[in-house]
Write a structure and sequence with these properties.
Oligomer: single chain
Helix content: 10-25%
CATH superfamily: MTH938-like
Number of helices: 3
Largest sheet: 6 strands, mixed
Radius of gyration: 13 Å
Length: 125
């Protein structure tokens, strides 16, 4: 993604690779964290799981058609998602799986292959 595209790539994309502070998808690479939704992938200004807030969850929940599952990759290590954020997802009927980013990328890709309505917030490692 580049500054000219506003940090957004439309369409559903599997994550081809991760590491080195970013991700590869859709034949391009992005340095930094991302929010991947069925409608597209966008850059997010997060460097740690502690920075995940209501606005990030609201962005995921605003997805047209809704989500079945939201995968959160918390970086190198598994860190819990704040209870209030998890409750917000549950109240919207969205399952939430929190794990280290590597596992989250693999889980997200499997769910995309299964044609599930999945979103992922992935902290770069």
């Amino acid at each position: 993604m580049t500054s000219s595209d506003g940090g957004y790539v439309p369409g559903r994309h599997k994550i081809d690779d991760y590491g080195g502070g970013g991700f590869r998808f859709a034949d391009m690479s992005h340095r930094g964290s991302i929010l991947a939704l069925p409608s597209g992938v966008r850059a997010v200004p997060l460097t740690s799981a502690a920075e995940i807030d209501d606005s990030m969850i609201d962005s995921a929940l605003s997805e047209s058609g809704g989500l079945d599952v939201f995968v959160v990759g918390t970086g190198k290590d598994l860190l819990p998602l704040a209870g209030g954020l998890r409750a917000k997802l549950r109240a919207a009927g969205v399952g939430c799986e929190t794990m280290a980013t590597g596992a989250a990328v693999r889980t997200y890709n499997v769910l995309v292959d299964e044609n599930r309505r999945v979103g992922a917030l992935l902290i770069a490692v």
